[in-house]
Specification:
Number of helices: 8
Number of strands: 25
C-alpha cells in the first residue's frame, strides 16, 4: 500500500505498508499516521491486543497526533503446522509516537486524571517512554519525563524528573498513594498546597501486588498545615532529601522553614532533620532549632508506627522568648495590646497517640524573668479585688509555673510569682479545649509569703495578712473571688483539690 487516506470516525488517517500473502517476511508491516486522532472506543477497538494494553494503561481521551509503525510476524502456512506464538507482545514490533493535543490521561500507576496534556510519548512493546509531558490537574501544573517498562511479572516506572506546582493536599491525592503512605497521611493530616520537584523517581510493582519506590528531590510548602503532636499551620518552607518505600517508609531529609505556627504561635527560621531508616518503626524529627518571638526553641519529635494510631513523643525547650510578643500573639484586632517587658524560658515533654487527645501525658515548666507582671490583665484584676495598690509599675518580677498534662487537662502544679511589691503562690487547673479553669492563689507581701512547698510552716498570725483568691470561668472570661485566709491547712487542701478536679468550661467550680 503506497498511500491510503481515509477516516476513522471523524479522524483523518494515512496508511502505507504491506500485507504478506506468502513468504517469510512480516505478515503485516504498516505505518499509520494522523494529525488529529480522536482517542475514542473506535481507536481502541482497532488496535491489536498488545496495543490495547498500552492504551488502557494511559486511559486517554481527546485528540493526539499519531505516527505508528507496526510489524507483526508471519502467520502459519498450513493448518497442520503448530501455531507459533506470533501474536505475543514479545514478537510484535511497534513504535507509536503520540503527541497529545490538550487531551486527558489517567496513568495506571498514578491514578490522578490529567487534563490539557501536551508533549511527546513513545510506546513500544517494552514500555512507554515519556520524552516530555505537560499536564494540569485542577490548579496543579505538572511536567515529567521518564519511562514505564512492562515485564512478565512486574512494572517498572522510572521518572527522571517530575515537577508539580500548586499541588493540593486533598483526598484524591491521598487515595492515589499506597496504603502505608495513606496511613502516614492520616496521622499527619496535611492540608494546603506545595510545589514538588522529584528526581530519579523509581516505582516497581511486582508479584503479589508488592510495590516499592524511591526518589530524591524537594517539597516546598506554601501556607500548608500538618500535625506532629502539636498542630502546625501557615507552614512555609522546604523539605529536601531522599525518601522511599520497601515494606516500610524511609526518609532522610532536611527541613528549612521560613515560618510556621505551632498551635497558633509563630515560629520562624526553623531547621530540622527528618530520618527514618529502612525497617525502622520510628520517624525522628531531630535537631529542631528555630526563632520564637525573638527567642529560640529547640528539641525533637519522635513518631512510632508500631501502634495504631501512631504514637508520638516530643521534647521542646524555649529560651529568651519575648513575653510581650508571646501574650499578644493571639490578640484580636479589636483588643488592646499588652505592653510589658519580660523574657520566657520554658520546657515541654509530651507523649500520646494521634487522634486520641485522652492519651496525652506530659509535663514542663515556664519561667518568666524580669517581667512587668503588674501589667498583666489577670494580675491587675486580682489586685483590684483585694484592693492592693502598687505605685511602681516598672518593678520587675519573676514567675515560675510547673505543669502536668493529662489528656485535655493541664494541671498547674505550682504557681509562684515573686516581686518587690507583692507575691503570689498557688496551684490550678485548665481544660483544653474550652479553656475552663480554676486557680487557687495566696496573695500578699513578698516578705510574708514563702514558696508553696513550705506554706505549711506559716503561723496563723502571718496567714491572716494574706488573701486567698479563686480564679474560675475561662482564660478569656475569668471570674474572681477573694477571701481572707483563716487556715493555711484549708488553703493547702483547696490547692490539692483543684489540681485533680474536672473543670466545666465557662462555669464556676465552687466548693462549699
Amino acid at each position: 500500500v503506497r498511500s491510503l487516506r481515509g477516516r476513522l470516525g471523524d479522524s483523518p488517517l494515512t496508511i502505507e505498508g504491506s500485507l504478506a500473502l506468502a513468504g517469510t517476511g512480516p505478515a503485516i508491516s504498516v505505518r499509520v499516521a494522523s494529525d488529529s486522532l480522536d482517542l475514542g472506543p473506535a481507536v481502541r477497538a482497532a488496535l491489536p491486543d498488545t496495543l490495547q494494553a498500552a492504551f488502557d494503561s494511559l486511559a486517554p481521551a481527546g485528540r493526539v497526533r499519531l505516527d505508528l509503525n507496526y510489524e507483526q510476524p508471519t502467520r502459519p502456512t498450513a493448518a497442520t503446522q503448530p501455531a507459533p506464538p506470533g501474536l505475543r507482545g514479545a514478537e510484535v514490533k511497534y513504535t507509536a509516537l503520540v503527541e497529545p493535543m490538550g487531551c486527558r490521561l489517567r496513568l495506571a500507576r498514578l491514578p490522578l486524571e490529567l487534563e490539557d496534556v501536551g508533549g511527546k510519548v513513545v510506546l513500544t512493546p517494552d514500555g512507554i517512554s515519556i520524552e516530555r509531558l505537560t499536564a494540569r490537574h485542577g490548579p496543579t501544573s505538572i511536567q515529567m519525563a521518564g519511562r514505564i517498562t512492562t515485564h512478565d511479572d512486574r512494572v517498572d516506572v522510572r521518572i527522571s524528573r517530575l515537577e508539580a506546582h500548586d499541588l493540593r493536599f486533598e483526598e484524591e491525592l491521598r487515595q492515589a498513594g499506597p496504603w502505608r503512605l495513606r496511613r502516614m497521611w492520616n496521622d499527619f493530616q496535611p492540608a494546603g498546597a506545595c510545589d514538588l520537584v522529584l528526581k530519579d523517581l523509581v516505582l516497581t510493582s511486582g508479584p503479589n501486588a508488592r510495590r516499592t519506590w524511591r526518589t530524591r528531590g524537594s517539597l516546598h510548602l506554601n501556607q500548608a498545615a500538618f500535625s506532629a503532636g502539636p498542630r502546625f499551620t501557615d507552614v512555609t518552607g522546604t523539605f529536601e532529601g531522599e525518601a522511599g518505600y520497601d515494606d516500610t517508609f524511609q526518609v532522610d531529609a532536611r527541613l528549612d522553614l521560613k515560618q510556621a505556627r505551632v498551635d497558633g504561635r509563630l515560629l520562624t527560621d526553623a531547621t530540622a532533620r527528618l530520618h527514618r531508616a529502612a525497617g525502622a518503626s520510628t520517624l525522628l524529627i531531630g535537631d529542631i532549632l528555630g526563632t520564637l518571638y525573638n527567642g529560640a526553641v529547640l528539641g525533637q519529635v519522635e513518631v512510632d508506627y508500631v501502634t495504631a494510631p501512631a504514637s508520638y513523643g516530643l521534647n521542646l525547650t524555649a529560651r529568651n522568648v519575648s513575653l510581650e510578643e508571646f501574650l499578644n500573639a493571639r490578640r484580636q484586632p479589636d483588643e488592646t495590646p499588652v505592653r510589658l517587658k519580660g523574657r520566657i524560658q520554658g520546657t515541654l515533654s509530651l507523649t500520646g497517640q494521634f487522634d486520641r487527645p485522652a492519651s496525652r501525658q506530659g509535663s514542663g515548666s515556664i519561667l518568666v524573668q524580669e517581667a512587668q507582671m503588674l501589667k498583666v490583665p489577670m494580675v491587675l484584676a486580682i489586685l483590684q479585688i483585694i484592693h492592693f495598690a502598687v505605685d511602681d509599675d516598672n518593678a520587675f518580677h519573676d514567675a515560675l509555673v510547673d505543669y502536668m498534662i493529662d489528656g485535655d487537662e493541664v494541671i498547674l502544679d505550682r504557681i509562684d510569682l515573686r516581686g518587690k511589691a507583692l507575691s503570689m503562690a498557688g496551684a490550678g487547673h485548665v481544660q483544653v479545649p474550652g479553656l475552663g479553669m480554676h486557680l487557687v492563689l495566696l496573695v500578699g507581701s513578698p516578705l510574708k509569703l514563702p514558696e508553696v512547698a513550705v506554706l505549711s510552716e506559716l503561723v496563723e498570725g502571718v496567714a491572716r495578712e494574706l488573701m486567698e483568691v479563686h480564679v474560675e470561668g475561662t482564660l478569656d472570661q475569668p471570674v474572681f473571688r477573694a477571701d481572707i485566709v483563716r487556715s493555711v491547712r484549708r488553703t493547702l487542701e483547696a490547692m490539692t483539690s483543684v489540681r485533680v478536679e474536672r473543670v466545666t468550661p465557662g462555669k464556676p467550680n465552687r466548693k462549699e
